[in-house]
């Protein structure tokens, strides 16, 4: 614990926060400098402020170690996710899900189908960007050919891709949110369904009824046919390929340790790759380490399934480590506690705590344009408030992902907004009104905060374990 007499005042405590905001706003937002470098710079500034306040470097270093130590269980889960994605692609599990997802396309209901298929594929692959960069491009081309307005078409694609991303255990943001909040991956995903699914379903209903005005249209385009034929040609599909998925779901719903289940699923997928896909042990090991490398010769397919591996999780882990270095010094010196005591005045009620968390996440997203930072900053800042209210950490992780990471693609100058515009050629200003899932989730969260519905109480002290 920090000696109360040594705690810096509010003005000194705000210097690191203001410095971080300026570094991210200018460095990340304008010059696109890597967030990790900027967070290290913010940590250095925080350390200097700590020295000025009379703290020793050894104490601050201890704070960094303590902060990172808390994140290690989730870091292990991230590594296991990377292994699992690579092995599931090698086995043909993910390609099979993509194949049959595309087969679900209805020739009549374009908007609802595009959103639904993008959701399925994004859940299977854990990447909104990958889904938008492949199927999104194909769908937007179909929309243009059919004369469907670009705003609704892009909104349906973005909403579907980000819905799948935020509930997929393979997603980097879905893995990072519980790390920032101190919850665990599978409790976080299950808890998020309360807000994510209603918002998604409302969006699908709107797409369904609005899309009826477009009439009949055959959307089995050459691009879609090429993707499905290529997948079928290069992978052997059968029911056994669902076994890795069954193993993960069993461990999750039976509330057994998740990490052994993920590793068992990956080993099973590796064996299936050897049996059904004629892969070698070396190829399977490479997919688990550096990711699956597709060489079908069809660019759109290769881009979609060339992913996974432990190395794919390194960047998000570096962001987490550097952010926790910053917050570790803030906590050890008492600066975070000083700021928290000012903020906590607005969090006396559950509804005001939820509203404050939503506002902080959105503000961070607007300032930084970063999905990662819009979860880490409010997560670190407001975790003590949720604990004080005896609210489970999964409430916090749900809010920061939905109000932070999922809002980011609606911000024109964010990396996600720039990526979507550059990939499918539609501005966020055009698709924002139609990306219903992205912002209706936030509205639903505010209603939950006001009514108390699904605001779970804390069960155990260690909420990094499943069943908390």
Describe what you observe in this structure.
This protein has a domain at 74-312. 72% of the residues lie in helices and 0% in strands. The chain has helices at 10-28, 35-52, 57-91, 93-103, 110-125, 128-146, 150-167, 172-181, 185-211, 222-234, 243-253, 258-276, 281-290, 299-305, 314-332, 335-343, 350-368, 373-388, 393-405, 415-424, 428-431, 436-451. Helix 6 (128-146) runs parallel beside helix 20 (415-424) and helix 18 (373-388) packs antiparallel against helix 19. The radius of gyration is 22 Å and the shape is globular. It starts with 9 loop residues before the first helix and ends in a 17-residue tail after the last helix.
Can you give the helix content as a percent range?
A: over 70%
Structural class: mainly alpha
Compute the average pLDDT: 86
Share of β-strand residues:
under 5%
Q: How far is it from the N-terminal to the C-terminal residue, by CA?
A: 26 Å
Question: What is the count of helical runs?
Answer: 22
Which residues sit in consecutive blocks of at least 5 with pLDDT less than 50?
none
Q: How big is the Rg?
A: 22 Å
H/E series? HHHHHHHHHHHHHHHHHHHHHH
Oligomer: single chain
Shape estimate: globular
Report the strand count. 0
- The biggest beta sheet, please? none
């Amino acid at each position: 614990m920090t000696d109360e007499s040594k705690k810096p005042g509010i003005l000194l405590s705000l210097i690191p926060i203001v410095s971080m905001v300026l570094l991210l706003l200018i460095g990340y937002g304008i010059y696109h400098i890597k967030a990790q470098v900027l967070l290290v710079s913010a940590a250095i500034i925080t350390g200097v402020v700590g020295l000025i306040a009379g703290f020793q470097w050894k104490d601050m270093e201890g704070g960094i170690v303590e902060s990172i130590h808390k994140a290690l269980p989730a870091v292990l889960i991230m590594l296991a996710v990377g292994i699992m994605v690579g092995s599931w692609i090698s086995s043909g599990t993910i390609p099979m899900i993509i194949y049959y997802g595309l087969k679900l396309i209805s020739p009549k209901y374009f908007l609802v189908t595009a959103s639904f298929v993008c959701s399925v594929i994004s859940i299977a692959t854990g990447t909104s960007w990958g889904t938008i960069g492949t199927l999104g491009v194909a769908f937007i081309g179909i929309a243009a050919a059919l004369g469907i307005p670009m705003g609704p078409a892009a909104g349906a694609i973005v909403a579907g891709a980000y819905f799948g991303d935020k509930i997929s255990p393979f997603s980097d943001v879905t893995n990072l949110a519980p790390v920032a909040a101190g919850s665990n991956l599978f409790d976080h995903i299950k808890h998020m369904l309360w807000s994510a699914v209603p918002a998604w379903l409302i969006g699908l209903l709107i797409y369904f009824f609005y899309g009826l005005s477009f009439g009949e249209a055959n959307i089995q385009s050459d691009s879609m046919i090429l993707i499905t034929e290529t997948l079928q040609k290069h992978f052997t599909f059968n029911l056994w390929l669902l076994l890795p998925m069954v193993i993960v779901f069993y461990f999750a719903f039976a509330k057994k340790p998740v990490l052994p289940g993920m590793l068992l699923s990956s080993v099973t997928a590796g064996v299936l790759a050897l049996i059904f896909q004629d892969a070698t042990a070396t190829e399977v090991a490479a997919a688990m380490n550096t990711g699956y490398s597709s060489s079908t010769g069809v660019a759109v397919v290769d881009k979609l399934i060339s992913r996974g591996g432990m190395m794919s999780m390194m960047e998000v882990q570096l962001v987490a480590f550097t952010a926790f270095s910053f917050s570790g010094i803030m906590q050890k010196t008492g600066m975070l506690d000083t700021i928290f005591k000012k903020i906590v005045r607005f969090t006396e009620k559950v509804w005001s705590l939820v509203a404050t968390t939503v506002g902080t996440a959105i503000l961070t997203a607007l300032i930084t344009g970063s999905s990662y930072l819009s979860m880490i900053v409010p997560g670190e800042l407001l975790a003590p408030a949720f604990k004080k209210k005896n609210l489970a950490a999964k409430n916090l992780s749900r809010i920061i992902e939905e109000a932070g990471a999922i809002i980011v693609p609606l911000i024109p100058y964010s990396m996600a907004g720039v990526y979507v515009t550059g990939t499918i050629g539609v501005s966020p200003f055009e698709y924002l009104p139609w990306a219903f899932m992205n912002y209706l989730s936030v509205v639903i969260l505010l209603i939950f905060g006001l009514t108390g519905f699904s605001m779970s109480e804390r069960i155990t002290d260690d909420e990094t374990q499943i069943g908390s």
